[in-house]
Amino acid sequence: MGEHIVSSFDDELKQIDRLIRDMAERASAMVSSATRSLLGSDAALAQRVISDDALMDASQRELDERAITLIAKRQPMAQDLRAVVAAIRMAADLERIGDLAKNIAKRVGAVGEAGAPRGLSHSIDAMAQMVIAQIEAVIEYYVARNAEALVELRADDEKIDIQYTAVFRELLTYMMEDPRNITPCTHLLFCAKNLERIGDHVTNIAENAYYVVTGAQLPLNRPKLDETGMTVSAGES
Known about the structure:
With 237 residues, this protein is an all-alpha fold.
């Protein structure tokens, strides 16, 4: 492979990495805005999150096209091939994070203008901040090719699960105390579940990033601690 070809190939890999970073930044911003719109009953901000999902979808399509073209044209081997395939997988998880943020934003009107109770607002916001920090960290560690930090971040998903369990129990308490809370709290429960699912997608990204860096797969028995004993579907789109 000539020097020019190697340089062009490196540039194409960097473009794919840049798209991953851009998608992660947008995903983080969408989760932050969706949470603020939910807790502040901000319909205009919620609508912006919903609109931003189309940009996330477009970024994923662009990355997929670039990656497939690179594979067909350059026929990368070993670590380079791992990086391209993992980028496709990570983009899919980031796109799904965008979908879940959009789902939260779509429930803003249903929760009502009263918003979440103050104590519960703090709990949901704390959970959202944990998730946002995970999104930002996983891409930072991927770019730095920090395998050890990726392993630690994957284990930290347990903290999000613990926070989700706490929010779940708080919501049940509010619903039992006053039946008028049942409808808004049910919507908030779905929102909290969406945040927990975002944490799972970050874990997927960490696993794929680790594979790029090391060439090895992490064990399948990832940490998981959802004690709610109740399945809540977050599968809207």
